[in-house]
Amino acid sequence: MPKPRLTRTDWITAALTALAEGGVAAVAVDPLAKRLNVTRGSFYWHFKSRDDLLLSALEWWEQEGTASVIDRVGHLADPRERLRTLFHIALTEDPTDGLEPALVAHADDPLVAPALHRVTARRLDFLTTAYTDAGLPPAKARIQAVVTYSAYIGWTELRRAAPTIATETVDDPVALNYLIESLVTAGARR
User: Fold this and answer.
1) What's the per-residue H, E or C state across the chain?
2) Domain 8-186: which topology?
3) Which of 45, 76, 120, 151 has its CA 20 to 30 A from that of 29?
4) 23-69 pLDDT, tens per residue?
5) What are the residue boundaries of the structural domains of the chain, listed by start?
C-alpha cells in the first residue's frame, strides 16, 4: 500500500513541533523524515534545504500566530473587548504548544532573530494602539504593551516548563480569566 504524499504544510507542522520540543537544532531533515515515516526525498520535493524549511516554518508562525490573530480582533471597536479577545486567543489557541518560548530561547539564531523581531514589533505596536485606544497616553500605553507581552511570554514559558507546578497555566479558567482581566483593566488606569 503506497504511503500518502506529504504536503509542504505537513513538513512545516513537523518542523514547528520539533522546534517547540527541541529548539532550532531539532529541525533536521533525517529526524523529521523518520517522525513522518517518509524518506528524505519527500523533504526535497518541497524544500531546497533545512534552512528553507526553518524559514518557511517561521513565516507560517509569523502569519498564523500574529497577522491572522490581529486580523481576527482588529475589527472590534471596543478596545477592551479587542484586548480581551486577543488575550484569550493567544493564551488558548496555541497550535504548537511551547513554540513561543522555544523561539525566544533562540533569539540570537540568525534565522530566528529576524522573524522574532518582526513579530515582537508587530505585537507590541498592536498592543500599544489598543491600550492607547483604551485611554492610556501613548507613552504609558507602550509601557503597558511591553509589560503585557512580558506576562504573555512568561505565562507560556511557565506552562511549558512547569505544568505540574504551575497548574493554573495549563487548564484553569479562573486563573486564565484573572490574567486576562488584569491585563485588560491595566489599560483603564491612567
Assistant:
1) CCCCCCCHHHHHHHHHHHHHHHCHHHCCHHHHHHHHCCCHHHHHHHCCCHHHHHHHHHHHHHHHHHHHHHHHHCCCCCHHHHHHHHHHHHHHCCCCCCHHHHHHHCCCCCCHHHHHHHHHHHHHHHHHHHHHHCCCCHHHHHHHHHHHHHHHHHHHHHHHHCCCCCCHHHHCHHHHHHHHHHHHHHCCCC
2) Tetracycline Repressor; domain 2 (1.10.357)
3) 120
4) 999 999 999 999 999 988 889 999 999 999 999 999 999 999 999 99
5) 8-186
Place of cell 486563573: 175
Please give the Cα distance from 11 to 1 (Å, whole number): 22
Q: Give the number of C-alpha atoms closer than 13 A to the C-alpha of residue 60, restricted to the C-beta side.
A: 20
All cell numbers assigned to 27:
529541525
Alpha carbon distances (Å) from 153 to 19, 29, 87, 189, 190: 16, 29, 12, 22, 24
Q: Which residue has the cell 522573524?
A: 115
